[in-house]
């Protein structure tokens, strides 16, 4: 088994602002190896956490015990084209999975706008794309394979629906996920249109835009009166991908030019409003047709930290107006756009932020090296006032007692957690804050607790 020696055993996330020093960082190659090292760590009283691409913006994988990286457990393990089902290793990057599915003329029905994550990291945190008739990525899960703290394995299926509904979005709190069985669809193409429209017009016609497109999202820069809208729709048209030159120019604008603007804004915050307006004017419209996975995902090289809230779809426009008013009123230096996407209601995952309601996701960002907490706290206050729920893979400052009231299936999830991990092997400081301690089966669920456990210092509070 390979032990990571990166940075002398120190793990750091993609954004570079969360890190920990585990006792061991291991890369198992098989389920048997996962079972062996997990059982040993549990026997020694160590916390076990699992990391993929490190694309979460909080400290949910941090531990001073055992950190498992499943990069070597990747790829398609089984393909049933007729049934539309595939089994895939938990360490598989979404970008690699897309290419492997394409070779079988298959595709995921929806994706987020970044494909660098591992499949387990994306699913376990409730990652999503956009499309009012499509749920979070975890709704595509038919089965989950787990290794529990005692080294035994468990396949979660609809034979035990409560366990599967807990395992789809679990934050790694139930066991080590080693593989998934996913529902997939025949490969398809999308017509991708991007254009700038007046922000007021976009908000006034929001329902028409969401309902009238297979996949609709938009970006708005604070201090600018323009929205950048993206309309992606299925089509039978022949592929006409963007020319290499046009694609290169667009990527340079989205990354190189934007990076330069962020650096200037960090050095001279008073210039951020002017920079934001300039960026919206520089964005050129586009219209092309390509394979779905090439349209969904974009290359992102600018480093940032992020918070994202799931609010009732009907509240979307008002929440955005409140955030923009707060930015102006509190003179917050915000150089990143707000990203807005839409998903269907979800009752297949107990901890889905879209549970039981059509949902708008509002993502806010802060460039690396800039103070994020004042802005994020203000956004959180606004989102909570509109019954918001946080994206589990992003920063948020809420705790278990507040979150429990926002999830109708909270106690059902906690019952499964108590059953599968009664000794809190997979619970670190972050999970103790947002999920509370594991309770003995049969006790009254409680979000607050005085459990000590993992000694990692909670960050980002």
CATH class of the domain at 189-390: Alpha Beta
CATH superfamily of the domain at 189-390: FAD-linked oxidases, C-terminal domain
The shape is globular
Largest sheet: 8 strands, antiparallel
Work out the helix count.
14
> Structural class, from helix and strand content?
alpha+beta
Q: Which strand order spans the largest sheet, edge to edge or round the barrel? A: 17-14-16-15-19-20-18-21
**What is the second-level CATH architecture of the domain at 189-390?**
3-Layer(aba) Sandwich
What distance separates the N and C termini? 36 Å
What do you see in this structure?
The chain is α+β, with helices and mostly antiparallel strands and 461 residues long. Among the domains are: 76-186, Uridine Diphospho-n-acetylenolpyruvylglucosamine Reductase, domain 3 (2-Layer Sandwich), CATH 3.30.465.10; 189-390, FAD-linked oxidases, C-terminal domain (Vanillyl-alcohol Oxidase, Chain A, domain 3), CATH 3.40.462. Helices cover 30% and strands 24% of the residues. It is built from 14 helices and 21 strands. The strands form five sheets. Strands 17-14-16-15-19-20-18-21 form an eight-stranded antiparallel beta sheet, sandwiched between helices. Strands 7-8-12-10-11 form a five-stranded antiparallel beta sheet. Strands 1-4-6-5 form a four-stranded mixed beta sheet. Strand 2 (11-12) and strand 3 form a beta hairpin. Helix 4 (161-168) crosses helix 13 and helix 7 runs antiparallel to helix 8. The longest helix has 24 residues, at 244-267. It is globular, with a radius of gyration of 22 Å.
Keywords:
461 residues; alpha+beta; Uridine Diphospho-n-acetylenolpyruvylglucosamine Reductase, domain 3; Vanillyl-alcohol Oxidase, Chain A, domain 3; eight-stranded antiparallel beta sheet; five-stranded antiparallel beta sheet; 30% helix; globular; disordered C terminus
